[in-house]
Amino acid sequence: VQxxxxxxxxxxxxxxLRLSCAATGFTFSNFPMSWYRQAPGxxxxxxxxxxxxxxxxxxxxxxxxxxxxxxxxxxxxxxxxMNSLKPDDTAVYYxxxxxxxxxxxQVTVSS
Length: 111
Description:
It is globular and about 40 Å long. It is 0% helix and 51% strand. The protein contains no helices and eleven strands.
């Protein structure tokens, strides 16, 4: 199992980013996918997850209304669309599936 994140970067407060996570090594459509983040000096926290089959979603309260997780079962990719970004959203964002973690992608929200 392997997951690889992309799409991070520097964005101004109020801006948007879409993160992508490409997965290989398992039957993608059958399994849930999740995004976590870890800010400097803080514990890693779950941001969003999406189930396999029915695509049920979960969002952390601090990002509800600003983030959307989606999946493309043809491309074996999960996305995290983030809008109205705040400096507090600055973190390394990780994708995970079936116990595998990616290297993370840095998101920095700053003017």
